[in-house]
Each structure stands twice: as C-alpha cells, then as structure tokens.
Amino acid sequence: MFTRLLPWLFLAVWSTGYAVAKLALEYTEPFNLLAYRFVGAALFVTPFVIFMRLSLPPLSTIKQLAATGVFLHIGHFGTMYVGMKLGASASIMALIAASQPALIILSTALYRRFWPSWQTWCALGLGLAGAGWIVGLNMNGQTGYLLGALLGFVAVLGMSLGQVIEKNRTLHVHPITATWVQYCFAAVIAAPLAWLVEGVVYVPSEALFWSVGHLVVVNTVIGMLLMFALVRTGSLAQATAIMFLVPAMGAFFAWPIVGEIPSWWTLPGFGLAMAGALWTRRLQRMVRG
Asked: What's the total number of domains in the chain?
C-alpha cells in the first residue's frame, strides 16, 4: 500500500515547493532564501552522514559534485526565487516545470551530440505555449511577471542540464553523501552571495519560519528520502509518469498558501502544458521500449 502511495507523496512534496517559496519571499530576498534553504539542509542532513558512518568521497569526486550542484541547486533555485520576487506566480513556475522532461531529452541530445526528433520539439512547444497563454493572461502590463517567467524557464533548463550531466557519469559514492556534499557547497556559495548582494534580510514572522522549515525539511530532505525510496522500490518510473500533474498540483497548493486563484481562462494553458508533458512521457517510453 505504501509503495503505491510513494509516487503521489513525491508529487505532492515537489509541488508544494513553488507556493511555499513564494510565501517566504514576502519576508526575505531571493539569495537570502537560497542561503536559509541550503544552510538548513546541510545541517539537517549532516547527522544522517555521521550516524550512517558514510565516508567522504575523494577530492576529485567532490569537485565534480560541486560543479553539478551549480546547475541543480544554485542555478535552479536561485533563478527561480529571483523570478518569483520579480512578480512571477507560483502557478506559472509549476507550469514551466512541466517542460522539464522535454528539456532533459534536448539536453541529452546536446550532451551526446545528436539532433532530437521533431516530436520532442513539438512536445516542448506545447508546454511553452501553455506557459505563454497564462503569462499573457496574467501579465497585465507587468514586465516583472514576464521576466520572472523567463527566469523560471532558465531555472528549469539549468536543472535539466545538471540532471543530464549527473546521469551520464559514474561516481562511486553513496547518494546521501553526494547530496550532502552538494548541499554544503550550495550553502557555502549562497550565504556569502546573499550577504554581498542583499545583506541580511529577515522579517521575523511565523509564516517565514514555517515556509523556510518546509523548504528545508519537507522539500529538500524528505523529498530526497522519498526519491531514494522510489529507487529502492522500483517506483521511480511511476513517479516520472505522473509528473505531468505538477502544474495542476502546483496551482492547487498555491490557492490556500499564497491566495493565487486560477481563472477558467487559464485552463487551456494548463491543458497545453500537461499535453506536452504527456507527449514527452510517450516519447520516453518509446525510447526505452
């Protein structure tokens, strides 16, 4: 029973991050939030590394993990938080995330130096058309919303590149150790960056404590543990299969958390994005078959 619920739990944990980050940014700045998230995550994962007696990888491996962490953590979340602060909604960020499977295929093609199929381009086009539909409806002359949405796309592209690099190399290191190294590296980069660019921005409030705690414990740590559980139980393919629901789930959580109420006119945009994600899923199954 629990194995069947794992993919849905992972989907829910992943989808809450957009709205919770948007809430946190009402009380702090993007790079400050990045620092709070990864300093907290590094401290939270450290006891796992100690109690499991996990050994540190060699320096060459640490360097490779740190380099990938630039795309997966600093690049992705930093760009996304800046985009949200500029005015992009949590819903549009979740919607753009639906294009990630197609972007991973495109990134893999660039990494392996071959031209992706026209179906991949069409699937990505559907996802971006859905995002463009909603941006056009919600922008209302606000250039910050448009720029924020574009940064959201850059964030997803950065994570896709990082995942492709991670997948196409073999590092003989425990996944928790690898994740911990990347969190520590992200914290070491994010904290000075926040201090130099923004200073220390901190508005004490229950909402800030709750949202940062959620990003650290639920999204970063529990999300990581759920991912490992999916790998061990063989349910990762099922989780990938339902990731096309991220836009709908992201919009669902954005409603009670930050008060973003989607209008009926935005439904075609969500439909286009999910159609693109479903098409990409079909392409992935054809390649595996």
From this structure: 1
